[in-house]
Amino acid sequence: MVSIVAANFAKFGKREEDIFSISSESAMPIVDKFRDAIDFVVVSNSYSGEFNGISGLNSLLTTHLAMDDLPSMRVDNASGSGGSAILAAKSLVASGEARNVLVIGTEKMTGYPTKKSTGIIASLLPPEERSGGLSLPSLAAFMARAYMREFSPTRESIAMVAVKNHHNGAMNPYAHFQSEVSLEKVLASKVIADPLRIFEYCPVSDGAVSLLVSSDADSSSLANRTVKIAGTGAGSGVSSIASRESLVTIESVKESSAKAFRSSGTKPDDVDIAELHDMASILEIVESEDVGFFKKGEGWKALENGETAIGGRLPINTSGGLNSKGHPIGASGVAQAAEIYLQLTGQAGKRQVKNASTGFSLSMAGFGNNSISIVYGVN
Amino acid sequence: MIFYRCASCSREYVFRRSKCPKCGSKDFSAVEITSATALDSVHLIATPEPFPDEYDVVLFQTESGSRGFCRATSQIKRGDKLKIRTDEVGILCEHE
After folding, report:
1. If we measure between CA atoms, which residue out of B14, B7, B10 comes closest to residue B67?
2. Chain B closest-CA separation from residue A125 CA (Å)
3. pLDDT per residue over A18-34, tens digit each?
4. Model's pTM, two decimal places?
5. Would you kindly state where each structural domain of chain B is located, as residue ranges?
6. CB contact under 8 A, A141 and B59
7. Disulfide engineering: A7 pairs with which of A225, A254, A338, B28, CB 3.0-4.6 Å?
8. Which residues of chain B are within 8 Å of residue A130 when distances are taken between CB atoms?
9. What's A176's DSSP letter?
10. CB–CB of A121/A50 below 8 Å?
Protein backbone atom coordinates (compact mmCIF):
# COMPACT_ATOMS: atom_id res chain seq x y z
CA MET A 1 0.00 0.00 0.00
CA VAL A 2 1.09 3.58 -0.70
CA SER A 3 0.16 6.51 1.53
CA ILE A 4 0.09 10.29 1.62
CA VAL A 5 1.96 11.39 4.71
CA ALA A 6 2.07 15.16 4.28
CA ALA A 7 0.42 17.94 2.26
CA ASN A 8 1.05 21.66 2.02
CA PHE A 9 -0.49 24.46 -0.02
CA ALA A 10 0.67 27.77 -1.43
CA LYS A 11 -2.39 29.99 -1.71
CA PHE A 12 -4.22 29.87 -5.04
CA GLY A 13 -5.07 33.12 -6.78
CA LYS A 14 -3.33 35.92 -8.64
CA ARG A 15 0.21 35.76 -7.34
CA GLU A 16 2.99 38.25 -7.95
CA GLU A 17 5.75 35.66 -7.41
CA ASP A 18 7.23 33.46 -10.14
CA ILE A 19 6.58 29.73 -10.50
CA PHE A 20 9.71 28.82 -8.52
CA SER A 21 8.70 30.87 -5.48
CA ILE A 22 5.11 29.61 -5.52
CA SER A 23 6.28 26.00 -5.87
CA SER A 24 8.85 26.45 -3.13
CA GLU A 25 6.23 27.94 -0.79
CA SER A 26 4.24 24.71 -1.03
CA ALA A 27 7.19 22.31 -1.02
CA MET A 28 9.68 23.71 1.50
CA PRO A 29 7.80 22.77 4.71
CA ILE A 30 7.78 19.15 3.48
CA VAL A 31 11.38 19.31 2.24
CA ASP A 32 12.57 20.79 5.54
CA LYS A 33 10.91 18.02 7.52
CA PHE A 34 11.53 15.01 5.28
CA ARG A 35 14.63 15.91 3.19
CA ASP A 36 16.56 12.77 4.13
CA ALA A 37 13.66 10.49 3.26
CA ILE A 38 12.67 11.99 -0.11
CA ASP A 39 14.25 10.07 -2.98
CA PHE A 40 12.24 11.20 -6.04
CA VAL A 41 10.41 14.33 -7.16
CA VAL A 42 7.41 14.35 -9.50
CA VAL A 43 6.32 17.76 -10.79
CA SER A 44 2.77 18.11 -12.10
CA ASN A 45 2.66 20.99 -14.54
CA SER A 46 1.15 21.52 -17.94
CA TYR A 47 1.86 24.99 -19.27
CA SER A 48 5.25 26.25 -18.00
CA GLY A 49 6.37 26.48 -21.64
CA GLU A 50 3.39 28.49 -22.82
CA PHE A 51 2.86 30.75 -19.78
CA ASN A 52 6.37 31.02 -18.30
CA GLY A 53 8.76 30.25 -21.17
CA ILE A 54 10.28 27.41 -19.14
CA SER A 55 10.99 23.82 -20.16
CA GLY A 56 12.46 21.07 -17.99
CA LEU A 57 10.73 22.58 -14.97
CA ASN A 58 11.31 19.52 -12.78
CA SER A 59 15.11 19.80 -12.83
CA LEU A 60 15.03 23.56 -12.42
CA LEU A 61 12.74 23.11 -9.42
CA THR A 62 14.88 20.44 -7.72
CA THR A 63 17.85 22.78 -8.04
CA HIS A 64 15.78 25.68 -6.69
CA LEU A 65 14.82 23.49 -3.72
CA ALA A 66 18.48 22.42 -3.16
CA MET A 67 17.67 18.82 -4.04
CA ASP A 68 19.96 18.64 -7.08
CA ASP A 69 20.89 15.06 -6.29
CA LEU A 70 17.33 13.73 -6.62
CA PRO A 71 15.88 12.21 -9.77
CA SER A 72 12.76 13.96 -11.01
CA MET A 73 10.20 14.05 -13.80
CA ARG A 74 7.56 16.45 -15.03
CA VAL A 75 4.12 15.01 -15.68
CA ASP A 76 1.96 16.85 -18.21
CA ASN A 77 -1.55 15.59 -18.85
CA ALA A 78 -3.28 18.97 -19.29
CA SER A 79 -5.84 19.52 -16.51
CA GLY A 80 -5.43 15.87 -15.49
CA SER A 81 -1.74 16.33 -14.73
CA GLY A 82 -2.25 16.17 -10.98
CA GLY A 83 -4.04 12.83 -11.03
CA SER A 84 -1.41 11.45 -13.40
CA ALA A 85 1.40 12.72 -11.16
CA ILE A 86 -0.07 10.92 -8.16
CA LEU A 87 -0.50 7.81 -10.29
CA ALA A 88 3.18 8.09 -11.28
CA ALA A 89 4.28 8.63 -7.67
CA LYS A 90 2.23 5.68 -6.47
CA SER A 91 3.70 3.50 -9.22
CA LEU A 92 7.25 4.58 -8.40
CA VAL A 93 6.73 3.60 -4.78
CA ALA A 94 4.78 0.41 -5.47
CA SER A 95 7.43 -0.78 -7.94
CA GLY A 96 10.24 -0.17 -5.45
CA GLU A 97 11.86 2.44 -7.70
CA ALA A 98 11.40 5.00 -4.92
CA ARG A 99 10.28 5.00 -1.29
CA ASN A 100 9.23 8.60 -0.67
CA VAL A 101 8.14 10.77 -3.59
CA LEU A 102 7.64 14.51 -3.30
CA VAL A 103 4.79 15.49 -5.65
CA ILE A 104 4.65 19.19 -6.53
CA GLY A 105 1.61 20.40 -8.46
CA THR A 106 2.23 23.88 -9.77
CA GLU A 107 1.11 26.40 -12.38
CA LYS A 108 1.62 30.12 -12.96
CA MET A 109 -1.04 31.30 -15.43
CA THR A 110 -2.12 34.85 -14.62
CA GLY A 111 -0.76 38.02 -16.15
CA TYR A 112 -2.11 37.47 -19.64
CA PRO A 113 -5.33 38.68 -21.29
CA THR A 114 -8.18 36.15 -20.95
CA LYS A 115 -8.26 35.75 -24.73
CA LYS A 116 -4.64 34.58 -24.77
CA SER A 117 -5.03 32.14 -21.85
CA THR A 118 -8.27 30.77 -23.35
CA GLY A 119 -6.39 30.22 -26.62
CA ILE A 120 -3.47 28.48 -24.92
CA ILE A 121 -5.78 26.13 -23.03
CA ALA A 122 -7.86 25.46 -26.17
CA SER A 123 -4.70 24.10 -27.79
CA LEU A 124 -5.50 20.72 -26.19
CA LEU A 125 -8.45 20.36 -28.57
CA PRO A 126 -8.02 18.64 -31.95
CA PRO A 127 -6.80 21.33 -34.40
CA GLU A 128 -9.68 20.55 -36.77
CA GLU A 129 -12.20 21.35 -34.00
CA ARG A 130 -10.31 24.30 -32.56
CA SER A 131 -10.47 25.97 -35.96
CA GLY A 132 -14.26 26.12 -35.51
CA GLY A 133 -13.74 28.68 -32.74
CA LEU A 134 -14.25 26.15 -29.96
CA SER A 135 -12.99 26.68 -26.41
CA LEU A 136 -13.28 24.66 -23.20
CA PRO A 137 -15.94 27.02 -21.76
CA SER A 138 -18.03 26.65 -24.94
CA LEU A 139 -17.92 22.86 -24.62
CA ALA A 140 -19.32 23.13 -21.10
CA ALA A 141 -22.13 25.27 -22.49
CA PHE A 142 -22.94 22.64 -25.12
CA MET A 143 -23.01 20.07 -22.32
CA ALA A 144 -25.31 22.25 -20.19
CA ARG A 145 -27.72 22.77 -23.08
CA ALA A 146 -27.81 19.05 -23.89
CA TYR A 147 -28.30 18.16 -20.21
CA MET A 148 -31.13 20.68 -19.88
CA ARG A 149 -32.87 19.25 -22.96
CA GLU A 150 -32.46 15.66 -21.85
CA PHE A 151 -33.11 15.79 -18.10
CA SER A 152 -34.99 19.09 -17.52
CA PRO A 153 -33.09 20.23 -14.42
CA THR A 154 -33.98 23.59 -12.96
CA ARG A 155 -31.57 26.26 -14.18
CA GLU A 156 -31.08 27.15 -10.52
CA SER A 157 -29.80 23.66 -9.68
CA ILE A 158 -26.89 24.03 -12.12
CA ALA A 159 -26.01 27.47 -10.75
CA MET A 160 -26.13 26.06 -7.22
CA VAL A 161 -22.82 24.30 -7.89
CA ALA A 162 -21.22 27.74 -7.82
CA VAL A 163 -23.13 28.78 -4.69
CA LYS A 164 -22.12 25.62 -2.82
CA ASN A 165 -18.50 25.69 -3.94
CA HIS A 166 -18.03 29.39 -3.16
CA HIS A 167 -19.49 28.67 0.29
CA ASN A 168 -16.91 25.90 0.78
CA GLY A 169 -14.09 27.99 -0.71
CA ALA A 170 -14.84 30.80 1.72
CA MET A 171 -13.81 28.37 4.48
CA ASN A 172 -10.59 27.35 2.71
CA PRO A 173 -7.70 29.74 3.42
CA TYR A 174 -5.90 28.53 0.27
CA ALA A 175 -8.80 29.16 -2.12
CA HIS A 176 -8.64 31.81 -4.84
CA PHE A 177 -12.09 33.18 -3.91
CA GLN A 178 -12.70 33.84 -0.24
CA SER A 179 -16.32 34.96 -0.39
CA GLU A 180 -19.75 33.44 -0.81
CA VAL A 181 -22.02 34.18 -3.74
CA SER A 182 -25.83 34.11 -3.83
CA LEU A 183 -27.88 32.21 -6.37
CA GLU A 184 -29.33 35.49 -7.60
CA LYS A 185 -25.85 36.91 -8.14
CA VAL A 186 -24.70 33.83 -10.05
CA LEU A 187 -27.73 33.94 -12.34
CA ALA A 188 -27.38 37.68 -12.93
CA SER A 189 -23.66 37.55 -13.65
CA LYS A 190 -22.09 37.96 -17.07
CA VAL A 191 -22.74 35.23 -19.64
CA ILE A 192 -19.50 33.60 -20.78
CA ALA A 193 -20.92 30.87 -23.02
CA ASP A 194 -24.71 30.76 -23.10
CA PRO A 195 -26.27 29.57 -20.78
CA LEU A 196 -23.34 29.44 -18.36
CA ARG A 197 -22.23 32.55 -16.47
CA ILE A 198 -18.94 33.76 -15.10
CA PHE A 199 -19.49 32.49 -11.54
CA GLU A 200 -20.10 29.03 -12.98
CA TYR A 201 -16.59 28.81 -14.39
CA CYS A 202 -13.29 28.41 -12.57
CA PRO A 203 -11.01 31.42 -12.58
CA VAL A 204 -7.52 31.57 -14.10
CA SER A 205 -5.27 31.04 -11.09
CA ASP A 206 -1.69 30.62 -9.95
CA GLY A 207 -0.93 28.15 -7.21
CA ALA A 208 0.99 25.16 -5.97
CA VAL A 209 0.51 22.24 -3.61
CA SER A 210 2.89 19.53 -2.48
CA LEU A 211 2.40 16.02 -1.14
CA LEU A 212 4.70 13.35 0.21
CA VAL A 213 3.75 9.91 -1.12
CA SER A 214 5.40 7.09 0.81
CA SER A 215 5.72 3.34 1.03
CA ASP A 216 4.21 1.33 3.86
CA ALA A 217 7.68 0.70 5.24
CA ASP A 218 8.24 4.44 5.65
CA SER A 219 4.86 6.08 6.20
CA SER A 220 4.24 5.05 9.80
CA SER A 221 7.66 6.26 10.89
CA LEU A 222 7.29 9.59 9.07
CA ALA A 223 3.88 10.73 10.33
CA ASN A 224 1.16 9.77 12.77
CA ARG A 225 -1.73 10.70 10.52
CA THR A 226 -1.55 9.26 7.02
CA VAL A 227 -4.02 8.52 4.24
CA LYS A 228 -3.70 5.45 2.04
CA ILE A 229 -4.17 5.48 -1.70
CA ALA A 230 -6.61 2.58 -1.69
CA GLY A 231 -7.20 2.36 -5.43
CA THR A 232 -6.56 4.16 -8.69
CA GLY A 233 -8.03 4.01 -12.15
CA ALA A 234 -7.23 5.69 -15.45
CA GLY A 235 -9.72 5.96 -18.30
CA SER A 236 -9.61 7.43 -21.77
CA GLY A 237 -12.03 8.58 -24.43
CA VAL A 238 -11.91 10.12 -27.89
CA SER A 239 -10.34 13.59 -27.93
CA SER A 240 -12.66 14.69 -30.71
CA ILE A 241 -15.72 16.12 -28.97
CA ALA A 242 -17.85 16.11 -32.13
CA SER A 243 -17.25 12.37 -32.45
CA ARG A 244 -18.71 11.57 -29.03
CA GLU A 245 -22.03 9.79 -28.98
CA SER A 246 -23.29 11.80 -26.00
CA LEU A 247 -22.56 15.25 -24.62
CA VAL A 248 -24.12 14.45 -21.25
CA THR A 249 -21.81 11.67 -20.21
CA ILE A 250 -18.02 11.36 -20.06
CA GLU A 251 -16.83 7.86 -20.87
CA SER A 252 -13.34 8.31 -19.42
CA VAL A 253 -14.88 9.28 -16.05
CA LYS A 254 -17.03 6.17 -15.99
CA GLU A 255 -14.06 3.98 -16.90
CA SER A 256 -11.54 5.49 -14.47
CA SER A 257 -14.03 5.47 -11.60
CA ALA A 258 -15.08 1.86 -12.15
CA LYS A 259 -11.40 0.85 -12.16
CA ALA A 260 -10.63 2.83 -8.98
CA PHE A 261 -13.58 1.32 -7.12
CA ARG A 262 -12.65 -2.16 -8.33
CA SER A 263 -8.99 -1.83 -7.36
CA SER A 264 -9.87 -0.47 -3.91
CA GLY A 265 -12.64 -2.99 -3.26
CA THR A 266 -15.09 -0.17 -2.63
CA LYS A 267 -18.22 1.16 -4.30
CA PRO A 268 -19.60 4.67 -4.80
CA ASP A 269 -21.89 4.33 -1.76
CA ASP A 270 -18.84 3.87 0.47
CA VAL A 271 -17.48 7.35 -0.33
CA ASP A 272 -17.83 10.01 2.38
CA ILE A 273 -16.28 12.97 0.52
CA ALA A 274 -15.36 13.64 -3.11
CA GLU A 275 -13.42 16.20 -5.09
CA LEU A 276 -14.62 16.46 -8.70
CA HIS A 277 -13.34 18.43 -11.69
CA ASP A 278 -15.79 21.37 -11.72
CA MET A 279 -14.13 23.52 -14.37
CA ALA A 280 -17.75 24.53 -15.09
CA SER A 281 -20.82 24.03 -12.90
CA ILE A 282 -22.46 21.48 -15.18
CA LEU A 283 -19.37 19.26 -15.07
CA GLU A 284 -19.74 18.59 -11.34
CA ILE A 285 -23.30 17.35 -11.90
CA VAL A 286 -22.48 15.18 -14.92
CA GLU A 287 -19.38 13.73 -13.24
CA SER A 288 -21.28 12.97 -10.01
CA GLU A 289 -23.52 10.74 -12.14
CA ASP A 290 -20.76 9.19 -14.24
CA VAL A 291 -18.69 8.31 -11.16
CA GLY A 292 -21.75 6.43 -9.91
CA PHE A 293 -22.77 8.59 -6.96
CA PHE A 294 -26.18 9.34 -8.49
CA LYS A 295 -28.31 7.93 -11.29
CA LYS A 296 -27.88 9.50 -14.74
CA GLY A 297 -29.98 12.64 -14.95
CA GLU A 298 -30.44 12.93 -11.18
CA GLY A 299 -27.23 14.60 -10.01
CA TRP A 300 -28.93 17.99 -10.11
CA LYS A 301 -31.65 16.77 -7.74
CA ALA A 302 -29.06 15.61 -5.20
CA LEU A 303 -27.43 19.02 -5.40
CA GLU A 304 -30.74 20.82 -5.03
CA ASN A 305 -31.60 18.65 -2.01
CA GLY A 306 -28.34 19.58 -0.30
CA GLU A 307 -26.94 16.04 -0.47
CA THR A 308 -23.59 17.28 -1.82
CA ALA A 309 -23.17 20.15 0.65
CA ILE A 310 -21.03 19.87 3.77
CA GLY A 311 -23.40 18.19 6.22
CA GLY A 312 -25.14 16.31 3.39
CA ARG A 313 -24.93 12.63 2.54
CA LEU A 314 -21.95 13.06 0.19
CA PRO A 315 -20.14 16.41 0.39
CA ILE A 316 -18.58 17.24 -3.00
CA ASN A 317 -15.78 19.76 -3.45
CA THR A 318 -15.39 20.70 0.20
CA SER A 319 -12.24 22.59 -0.86
CA GLY A 320 -14.31 24.94 -3.00
CA GLY A 321 -13.47 22.88 -6.07
CA LEU A 322 -11.90 24.35 -9.16
CA ASN A 323 -14.83 26.76 -9.23
CA SER A 324 -13.84 28.64 -6.08
CA LYS A 325 -10.45 27.31 -5.00
CA GLY A 326 -9.15 28.05 -8.48
CA HIS A 327 -7.64 25.97 -11.26
CA PRO A 328 -3.88 26.39 -11.61
CA ILE A 329 -3.92 23.52 -14.03
CA GLY A 330 -0.94 21.42 -12.95
CA ALA A 331 -1.80 21.93 -9.29
CA SER A 332 -5.50 21.05 -9.39
CA GLY A 333 -5.40 17.25 -9.26
CA VAL A 334 -2.74 17.33 -6.53
CA ALA A 335 -4.86 19.83 -4.59
CA GLN A 336 -7.81 17.43 -4.74
CA ALA A 337 -5.68 14.74 -3.08
CA ALA A 338 -4.42 17.26 -0.54
CA GLU A 339 -7.99 18.23 0.38
CA ILE A 340 -8.92 14.57 0.89
CA TYR A 341 -5.77 14.15 3.02
CA LEU A 342 -6.75 17.13 5.19
CA GLN A 343 -10.33 15.86 5.53
CA LEU A 344 -9.44 12.26 6.36
CA THR A 345 -6.84 13.34 8.92
CA GLY A 346 -9.17 15.86 10.57
CA GLN A 347 -7.20 18.93 9.52
CA ALA A 348 -9.77 20.67 7.28
CA GLY A 349 -10.71 23.40 9.75
CA LYS A 350 -14.12 25.05 9.34
CA ARG A 351 -15.01 22.84 6.37
CA GLN A 352 -14.22 19.59 8.17
CA VAL A 353 -16.60 16.73 7.37
CA LYS A 354 -17.30 14.63 10.46
CA ASN A 355 -16.31 10.96 10.55
CA ALA A 356 -15.14 10.81 6.94
CA SER A 357 -13.07 7.68 6.29
CA THR A 358 -13.26 7.13 2.51
CA GLY A 359 -12.47 9.83 -0.05
CA PHE A 360 -12.55 10.05 -3.83
CA SER A 361 -10.99 12.40 -6.37
CA LEU A 362 -11.49 12.81 -10.10
CA SER A 363 -8.74 14.52 -12.07
CA MET A 364 -9.80 15.10 -15.67
CA ALA A 365 -7.75 16.06 -18.71
CA GLY A 366 -9.27 18.43 -21.22
CA PHE A 367 -12.98 17.85 -21.61
CA GLY A 368 -12.74 14.26 -20.40
CA ASN A 369 -10.13 13.26 -22.98
CA ASN A 370 -8.85 11.09 -20.16
CA SER A 371 -9.44 10.84 -16.43
CA ILE A 372 -7.75 9.59 -13.29
CA SER A 373 -9.85 8.50 -10.33
CA ILE A 374 -8.42 7.81 -6.88
CA VAL A 375 -10.02 6.23 -3.81
CA TYR A 376 -8.47 7.10 -0.44
CA GLY A 377 -8.84 5.51 2.98
CA VAL A 378 -7.76 6.13 6.54
CA ASN A 379 -4.70 4.17 7.69
CA MET B 1 -13.61 22.22 -44.51
CA ILE B 2 -12.17 18.74 -44.87
CA PHE B 3 -13.38 15.50 -43.30
CA TYR B 4 -11.35 12.31 -43.61
CA ARG B 5 -13.24 9.31 -45.01
CA CYS B 6 -11.91 5.79 -44.46
CA ALA B 7 -11.44 4.17 -47.88
CA SER B 8 -12.39 0.79 -46.44
CA CYS B 9 -15.43 1.30 -44.16
CA SER B 10 -16.44 4.86 -45.25
CA ARG B 11 -16.52 6.14 -41.67
CA GLU B 12 -15.72 9.87 -41.57
CA TYR B 13 -13.56 11.72 -39.08
CA VAL B 14 -13.15 15.42 -38.47
CA PHE B 15 -9.89 14.65 -36.64
CA ARG B 16 -7.21 13.29 -38.96
CA ARG B 17 -6.06 9.82 -37.94
CA SER B 18 -3.24 7.52 -39.01
CA LYS B 19 -5.49 4.49 -38.82
CA CYS B 20 -9.24 3.97 -38.82
CA PRO B 21 -10.23 2.97 -35.24
CA LYS B 22 -13.24 1.16 -36.67
CA CYS B 23 -11.65 -1.12 -39.30
CA GLY B 24 -7.90 -0.55 -39.10
CA SER B 25 -7.46 0.76 -42.63
CA LYS B 26 -4.76 3.36 -43.20
CA ASP B 27 -6.25 4.72 -46.42
CA PHE B 28 -8.31 7.88 -46.21
CA SER B 29 -9.74 10.28 -48.74
CA ALA B 30 -10.33 13.97 -48.08
CA VAL B 31 -13.98 14.97 -48.34
CA GLU B 32 -14.86 18.63 -48.61
CA ILE B 33 -17.85 19.65 -46.48
CA THR B 34 -19.84 22.62 -47.78
CA SER B 35 -23.26 22.14 -46.15
CA ALA B 36 -24.67 20.80 -42.89
CA THR B 37 -27.48 21.12 -40.33
CA ALA B 38 -27.05 22.84 -36.97
CA LEU B 39 -27.50 20.49 -33.99
CA ASP B 40 -26.96 23.23 -31.41
CA SER B 41 -25.22 26.57 -30.99
CA VAL B 42 -23.61 28.42 -28.11
CA HIS B 43 -23.17 32.17 -27.96
CA LEU B 44 -19.58 32.61 -26.80
CA ILE B 45 -18.42 35.85 -25.16
CA ALA B 46 -14.99 34.81 -23.83
CA THR B 47 -13.36 33.68 -27.06
CA PRO B 48 -9.88 32.25 -27.65
CA GLU B 49 -7.09 33.73 -29.76
CA PRO B 50 -7.04 34.18 -32.77
CA PHE B 51 -10.82 34.50 -33.12
CA PRO B 52 -13.08 37.58 -32.96
CA ASP B 53 -14.45 38.79 -29.62
CA GLU B 54 -17.96 37.35 -29.79
CA TYR B 55 -19.70 34.76 -31.98
CA ASP B 56 -21.88 31.65 -32.01
CA VAL B 57 -20.10 28.29 -32.02
CA VAL B 58 -22.20 25.71 -33.85
CA LEU B 59 -22.20 21.93 -33.56
CA PHE B 60 -23.28 20.67 -36.96
CA GLN B 61 -24.04 17.38 -38.66
CA THR B 62 -23.44 16.57 -42.31
CA GLU B 63 -25.78 14.61 -44.53
CA SER B 64 -23.63 11.53 -43.99
CA GLY B 65 -24.00 11.88 -40.21
CA SER B 66 -20.55 13.25 -39.37
CA ARG B 67 -20.28 16.11 -36.91
CA GLY B 68 -18.01 19.12 -36.49
CA PHE B 69 -17.85 22.66 -35.14
CA CYS B 70 -17.91 26.00 -36.92
CA ARG B 71 -17.97 29.71 -36.05
CA ALA B 72 -21.14 31.45 -37.19
CA THR B 73 -21.33 34.88 -38.77
CA SER B 74 -24.96 35.29 -37.65
CA GLN B 75 -27.27 33.79 -35.03
CA ILE B 76 -27.84 30.11 -35.72
CA LYS B 77 -30.59 27.94 -34.22
CA ARG B 78 -30.93 24.18 -33.86
CA GLY B 79 -32.16 22.74 -37.16
CA ASP B 80 -30.91 25.61 -39.35
CA LYS B 81 -29.38 24.64 -42.71
CA LEU B 82 -25.79 25.85 -43.03
CA LYS B 83 -23.20 26.68 -45.65
CA ILE B 84 -19.68 25.82 -44.47
CA ARG B 85 -16.55 27.63 -45.62
CA THR B 86 -13.21 28.71 -44.22
CA ASP B 87 -11.61 32.11 -43.65
CA GLU B 88 -8.07 33.05 -42.58
CA VAL B 89 -8.59 31.89 -38.95
CA GLY B 90 -10.84 28.88 -39.26
CA ILE B 91 -14.13 27.25 -40.17
CA LEU B 92 -17.09 29.54 -40.76
CA CYS B 93 -20.76 28.82 -41.24
CA GLU B 94 -23.78 30.86 -42.25
CA HIS B 95 -27.40 30.29 -43.17
CA GLU B 96 -27.80 28.44 -46.45
Report:
1. B14
2. 10
3. 999 999 999 999 999 99
4. 0.97
5. 1-32, 34-96
6. no
7. A338
8. 48, 90
9. S
10. no
